[in-house]
UniProtKB/TrEMBL annotation:
Organism, scientific name: Desulfonispora thiosulfatigenes DSM 11270
Top-level taxonomic group: Bacteria
Protein name: Rubredoxin
Keywords tagged on the record: Electron transport, Iron, Metal-binding, Transport
Electron transport keyword on record: yes
Domain Rubredoxin-like residue range list: 15-58
GO-annotated molecular function: electron transfer activity; iron ion binding
Length: 59
């Protein structure tokens, strides 16, 4: 069974940005296929600037 990469959503008030590992994050120069867990520790939400801790996995 292969591990699926999860999408993560920014929980900051009124943000709701979703990080999709299949798309990456152009604004932060993250290429496609990078799991959220593998993002750099200083990754920030491209919309509101929240840190990784503000993100929660979604189905
Ligand atoms: Zn955000």
């Amino acid at each position: 069974m292969s591990e699926e990469m999860k999408m993560y959503q920014c929980q900051f008030t009124n943000c709701g940005f979703i990080y999709n590992p299949e798309r990456g994050d152009k604004k932060n120069k993250i290429p496609k296929g990078v799991d959220f867990e593998d993002l750099p520790e200083d990754y920030k939400c491209p919309l509101c600037g929240a840190s990784k801790k503000a993100f929660k996995p979604i189905d």
